Amino acid sequence: AAIDGLEAKGAKVILIDAQGDHLTSVSKAVADRDILLLNVSAYENNLRNADCRENLFHTIPSSAMLMDGLAQFLVGKKWLRVLVLQGPTQEDSRQVASFMRSAKRFGLKVSETRPFLLTQDPRARQVNRVEQLTAGDEDLYDVVFVADAHGEFSYRIPYATVLPRPVVGAHGLTSKAWHWSYLRHGAPQVNSRFEKKYGRRMNDRDWAAWIAVKAVSEAVRNKKSIELADIRADLLNQKLKLDAFKGGGYSFRPWDNQLRQPVLMVTDNWVASVTPLKAFLHSSNNLDTLGFDQPESKCNF
């Protein structure tokens, strides 16, 4: 209904902030209409694979891109043995599956996967106490990866592990499309303007929406046209150099409509690293070391 209302007002390009299942339904429903959707919030990998749509572009990175960036960082630090702590939700399961793919891709070893539960039951201490969850021999793990979509458990883990090890994933060091503390490539100006206007710090979704508007605006300017065919052609131009204030110029992947981009490794208040790392090379574009490269894509428009 919301899409119908926007279309009735003449909208042809629509930014959509919705969960993956809903986004899939919407993109299917408008597949035969003169509408272009830009996903600014859904990370699900299936949206870039089996459930991809020709009319759906993505400015938010996929879960695979985020996890590939994290895996590269861990390899760069030589933190190769990983203890995985998995929450009970379906989203936690998807996150672990995405991390497992990245771990295999970049040569990490997952020592164990241990489930945790949000319960105060003393009889369930094996699954609700950090001490039990992170117990093990000295060589069991170099780092702890936590999948906790709700964030109600992971905040307890840093500095509480039995072995003195860093924590990544849902807490500690996390993978982001954007962070307010990034200090390079003009990012401070973008962040300060946003905070001044809206009274809060810019997050991933804000950045994804902003760069989506910028991409479409530049396409209209480049093509001197508001026709969707022209806009889409410009977005998929592999010579496109979209300045996203993360360094370099970016383009959309023609095989799944995903915006190529670096991934930031961040703490609560600092950007610790930017991936892809220089050691990870690609035959044509190093940004394609993050996420699904064309040979492994299951997207068929």
Assign the structural class, choosing from mainly alpha, mainly beta, alpha/beta, alpha+beta, or little secondary structure: alpha/beta
The separation of the N and C termini measures: 25 Å
Main sheet?
4 strands, parallel
The amount of beta strand, in percent, is 15-25%
- Global outline: globular
**SSE run:** HEHEEHEHEHHEEEHHHEEEE
- Rg is 20 Å
Describe the structure in your own words.
The protein has 301 residues and is of the alpha/beta class. The chain folds into two domains: 117 residues, Rossmann fold, CATH 3.40.50.2300; 106 residues, Response regulator (Rossmann fold), CATH 3.40.50.2300. The protein is 32% helix and 16% strand. The protein contains nine helices and twelve strands. The strands form four sheets. Strands 5-4-6-7 form a four-stranded parallel β-sheet, covered by helices on one side. A hairpin with a 4-residue loop joins strand 11 and strand 12. Helix 8 crosses helix 9. The longest helix is centred in the C-terminal third of the chain and has 20 residues.
